[in-house]
Amino acid sequence: MQRTITATLYLLFLLPGVIRADASAEQLIADYDLEVAATPVSERPGWQAPNRILVHGADEARMQWLQAAVPDVELIAVSGYDDARQHVADADGLIGLCSNDLLQAGDQLNWVQLYSAGVEYCVELPAFEQDPPLLTNMQRIAAPVIAEHVIAMMMTLSRNLETFIRAEANGEWRRGNEYTRDMRVIKGKTLLVVGLGGIGTEVAERAHALGMTVIATRNSKPEGPDFVAKVGLPPDLKDFITEADVVVNALPLTDKTRDLFDAGHFDRMKESALFINVGRGGTVVTDDLLAALENGGIAGAGLDVTDPEPLPSDHPLWQAPNTIITPHVATRSDLEGEARWRVVRENLRRYASGEPMLSVVDPERGY
């Protein structure tokens, strides 16, 4: 029987499009520059070798692959919140879900693994504030894909492609100056990354490769990689933003970043500048952004996130000039979340064995 299971798992690893063999933990950490906790999770109060962990969103083949990493732990696949409520009372960990009632009902729940980088929907819950479990997320995992989305938006706006795409749909040949005068080059321009974390660093590297001067702000320290010409702290944003031809918002949503981009910041931007948001919609005052677009305060915007979200069909932002809106899909790609599952499997193994975890969230910082 054991030989049959082993053979099945081996085949699953080889089948294209199903599950590929996992790289070593060291390679995974190096590939995405993941942060490893300073102390083993076994030193966390309340930790014990887990008996039962709930997993959301995994099919049978994926569950077998995960189970192979923790043969002594009972993994239970749950289809959603209602299903999870039936099993969470005696679960030690919860993968892929976070809600107030699940946290309250999980009497011995000591670990929550999220599939997203954003954690505000979890850390802001009353139950989380009372007795928070260890929280791990997907910081940096989607960063390369999101960075490509940023570059695609920047190029589309810079070359006025949205105008020509609409013209193509109507069979119109728009070559006049009124359609081409706003087309610009990227090389030599200045790009400001607001939030030089995983996403911001990937954006900065790509922009530098395109011949742009990259400047950035970050919350931790005024230092960065060689391809970033200048790094400042949050108070420097008001000055940095005046230099930028493209402003990329890669910030998480926290108490300090909520409504950060308001009329004051948009007023300080160049009229020719582009604003791209792949962070969180709540970091922007939508009415102020809309006003800046409509009155020519900035030249255009690329938005993968909005506030509110989903954006209602009658919201005026849909009609804002020189604006591209994608429905929070910047993480999607042909990679199909494989890197995400590698992190889940490695953290599952680490939690079961009491080792230092990957990508631990600091609830006070909110990321």
From TrEMBL:
Signal peptide: 1-21
Domain D-isomer specific 2-hydroxyacid dehydrogenase NAD-binding: 151-330
InterPro entries, alphabetized: D-isomer_DH_NAD-bd, NAD(P)-bd_dom_sf
One Gene Ontology term of the molecular function aspect: oxidoreductase activity
UniProt keyword NAD present: yes
Top-rank taxon: Bacteria
Keywords: NAD, Oxidoreductase, Signal
The organism's taxonomic lineage, starting at the top: Bacteria, Pseudomonadati, Pseudomonadota, Gammaproteobacteria, Methylohalomonadales
Protein name: Phosphoglycerate dehydrogenase-like enzyme
SUPFAM superfamilies found in the cross-reference section: Formate/glycerate dehydrogenase catalytic domain-like (SSF52283), NAD(P)-binding Rossmann-fold domains (SSF51735)
